[in-house]
Amino acid sequence: MVKDQLWKIVVILIIVAACALYVYPPHQKLKLGLDLAGGTSLVYEIDTTGLKPQEQRGLAQRMIPILLRRIDPTHVANIVMRPQGDTRIEIQIPLASAEARQRREAYEKALLALEEENINLLRIRQVLNLEPAEREKLFEEFSRGRAERRAVLDELANIYDLRRQKQEQRDMLVAEMDTIRQQLAEAGLDVERLQSYLMQWVKLDSDKRREEIETYVKANVSDETGNGLGEKQTQARNLIDDYIAIYQRWEPIVNELTDPENGLNVQWQNAIRNLQTLNLNIDQLRDILDMPGNSGKRREMIDALKAQFPDRADKIEAVVQAYDAYSSVGGRLDNPEDLKRMIKGAGVLEFRILPTLDDDNAEQLAAYVEALREKGPKEASDNRYIWCEIEDPASWPPNLGITATFGDKRYVLASNQPDETMLQQGQRQWRLRRAFPTTDRHGARSIGFTFDEIGANLFYRLTSTNLGRPLCILLDNRAISAPNIESAIRSQGVITGRFSQTE
């Protein structure tokens, strides 16, 4: 009997010890709730514009699991969401532990110290307008005794000065041509019609040009005279001669500025890019830090940053260590402001056309893939194309669009050009009238949606000008699906994907 009890006690002690080891140290393994740790409570009201009363019933309860999936998919932040009636949701977030707050502060300080090593591009542009002596003094301060920094700054300043000089010359000549155009109009000539002739005359030799101008003036300026030009006609001819002379000075200046190969505008953009290479991209570093801590690729990319910025290697390592220490006890929802930003970005629907290898730009697209692997999604995106995370890589067709991996996430390359996007920012404000469950042509669960009038017109323009191309549907900047555009669509569409009935 005693032996049986002793055995049970030993088993119980082993179980208790195992549980204690599992939660040790408790300040790292256990996350206190709002009642014990304190915290913040936020209440959001759902925009029910366009919804019928029966569609509003239980709406808050139905939205909660979708929001949790977006905000805390792994359920580690200990967020509590409760419906308050049909159209309000209360969200409670516990206060982070003192250790998590301290480590977050240490991480942010380390990151700020690293960022302060960067050159402020806006400040540099302001300094370029200063007098040479003042500019020289500030450039010496910005370069911090580093020859490579000073060389980039000097190149930028030289191109800036020359470009501004040419721009001032161009603007002065344009003003002179505008004055002559006004005088020609006062002389009774159709300036818009005359402009087409001027472009032809400027290419002729002087004798042929004089003959053509005099013929035009005689035909278009009334002046009583014999065979020669009258006073008004002579005045008009002289004005045209002056205009052409100024144009011949203006044209090479404009070409010098705008030449697509080596114009001053191109040189200026190249100089700006060279200036940016002196700065460590903080967004890129954050993307790298978000990769799994034991990832060989993460360490490889951190080492590459240290090699690129050897004078900042110690500060880079300090940021890495501070982030790793913080991430072991904290998370992305330690602050109510983090939650507000995530809620604000939840449920944003946008559309982008996907480029394909059939677009006859394989080399350019391959460069974007290489840039993603080396720099991360933010740094590898630009005003032409942007990398978007794929919501469910397992369901994404293998040959759909240009896809690549960074860290443990898969991305698809999408257009960032105005005529190939329909975004929530930068265009006329549009919105959905409603979204509803439906099925696609194969009978699978899908989400149907209808636009307001502005949205319908924008969607029609997008789909009618990109027939036969894949249209990526994005929710919160994550690619859900990308059906081919088979015909122009105006007021409604369907999002296909793997959805539950609740979603």
Quickly list its features:
503 residues, alpha+beta, Alpha-Beta Plaits, 5 domains, 7-stranded mixed β-sheet, 3-stranded antiparallel β-sheet, 19 helices, 13 strands, 14% strand
What is the element layout, followed by pairings?
Blueprint: H1 2-22, H2 26-29, H3 34-37, E1 39-45, H4 53-56, H5 59-71, E2 80-84, E3 88-94, H6 98-115, H7 121-127, H8 132-143, H9 147-186, H10 191-201, H11 206-220, H12 231-258, H13 264-276, H14 282-289, H15 296-308, H16 313-327, H17 336-344, E4 349-353, H18 362-375, E5 385-390, E6 403-406, E7 409-415, E8 421-422, E9 432-439, E10 445-451, H19 453-464, E11 471-475, E12 478-481, E13 492-496
Parallel strand pairs: 5-12
Antiparallel strand pairs: 1-3, 2-3, 4-8, 4-11, 5-7, 6-7, 9-10, 10-13, 11-12
Helix pairs in contact: 6-16, 8-9, 9-12, 9-13, 11-12, 15-16
Could you walk me through the main structural features you see in this protein, from its secondary elements to its overall organization?
This protein has 503 residues and is an alpha+beta fold. The chain folds into 5 domains: 1-30; 34-97 and 336-344, Alpha-Beta Plaits; 99-117 and 280-329, no CATH class; 119-277, no CATH class; 347-496, Gyrase A, domain 2, CATH 3.30.1360. It contains 19 helices and 13 strands. The protein has a 7-stranded mixed β-sheet, covered by helices on one side. A 3-stranded antiparallel β-sheet has the order 1-3-2. Strands 9-10-13 form a 3-stranded antiparallel β-sheet. A hairpin with a 2-residue loop joins strand 6 (403-406) and strand 7 (409-415). The chain is extended, with a radius of gyration of 33 Å.
